[in-house]
């Protein structure tokens, strides 16, 4: 009887939190799924049910394909840069710096993560500027010709990847630092007695034991990469603030279909596709790390 009362008290205690979570998180997802099955036009009173017609139209939409390809390249590019770089930087801070200096390095690396997206993107837009940017000035010392970072289709995607990686790195390093501090010191001492070098200990001890941290960081980084918007919008916009066309991403495509073309149902179908992609990739990451852990 006492156990049942405790369980009931716990459920009642978390019920307000669950209700708020359902209203702010679950209800918008359900509503988006409903809108994706309708021809939901802001300017029209008639919003008929059309089933999977919006998704069928997506299959032949060139702009959607372009946005999906660009977003996928950016997301995996950020993931490929952030994970190994964050792990190495966290190891260097944890093992190679003194306790007083480590706080400075942690703050310096984490600072880009808390900087507002738009000011940070504007600063990087100046860095990537073809005529006045310091990046081309630096490359000129090595005999490399100035590059049109924000006008060339390939270089503009690389620019967005660099900006997103710069912002994601601080959070990933902080999480890896927590992981390194929780690793048992006795294993490293035993490996050192057996003649293992620091690199070998890092490769054969740290990386396998940090798999749960890697899973969490990779999922968060990949989800953030697929939701990229402000970075691509600001970097690719012209002097008047009009959005550029060099870096078209999924969120930008959804916003244009919703508020410029007034096709809310069509934009909702894009959001559903994005949700399914992120969900599938997350499940794949979980399964891969579980299989490696068993092996």
UniProtKB/TrEMBL annotation:
It is a multi-pass membrane protein. Keywords: Cell membrane, Membrane, Transmembrane, Transmembrane helix, Transport. GO terms for biological process: transmembrane transport. It comes from the Bacteria. Residues 68-285 form the ABC transmembrane type-1 domain. The chain crosses the membrane at residues 7-27, 73-95, 107-127, 155-178, 264-289. It is found in: Cell membrane. GO terms for cellular component: plasma membrane. Its main location: membrane. Belongs to the binding-protein-dependent transport system permease family. This is Sugar ABC transporter permease. It comes from Devosia chinhatensis.
């Amino acid at each position: 009887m006492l156990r049942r009362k405790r369980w009931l008290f716990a459920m009642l205690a978390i019920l307000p939190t669950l209700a708020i979570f359902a209203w702010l998180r679950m209800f918008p997802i359900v509503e988006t799924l409903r809108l994706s099955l309708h021809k939901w036009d802001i300017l029209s009173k008639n919003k008929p049910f059309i089933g999977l017609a919006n998704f069928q139209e997506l299959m032949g939409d060139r702009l959607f394909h372009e946005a999906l390809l660009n977003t996928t390249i950016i997301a995996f590019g950020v993931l490929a840069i952030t994970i190994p770089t964050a792990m190495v930087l966290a190891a260097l801070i944890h093992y190679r710096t003194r306790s007083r200096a480590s706080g400075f390095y942690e703050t310096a690396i984490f600072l880009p993560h808390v900087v507002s997206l738009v000011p940070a993107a504007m600063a990087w837009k100046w860095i990537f500027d073809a005529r006045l940017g310091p990046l081309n000035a630096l490359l000129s010392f090595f005999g490399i010709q100035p590059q049109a970072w924000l006008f060339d289709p390939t270089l503009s995607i690389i620019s967005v990847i660099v900006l997103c990686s710069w912002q994601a790195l601080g959070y990933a390093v902080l999480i890896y630092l927590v992981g390194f501090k929780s690793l048992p010191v006795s294993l490293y001492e035993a490996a050192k007695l057996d003649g293992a070098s620091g690199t070998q200990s890092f490769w054969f001890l740290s990386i396998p034991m940090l798999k749960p941290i890697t899973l969490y960081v990779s999922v968060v980084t990949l989800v953030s990469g697929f939701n990229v918007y402000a970075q691509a919008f600001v970097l690719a916009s012209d002097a008047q603030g009009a959005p550029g066309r060099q870096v078209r991403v999924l969120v930008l495509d959804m916003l244009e279909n919703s508020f410029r073309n007034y096709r809310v149902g069509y934009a909702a179908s894009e959001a559903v596709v994005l949700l399914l992609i992120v969900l599938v990739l997350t499940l794949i990451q979980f399964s891969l790390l579980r299989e490696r852990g068993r092996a």
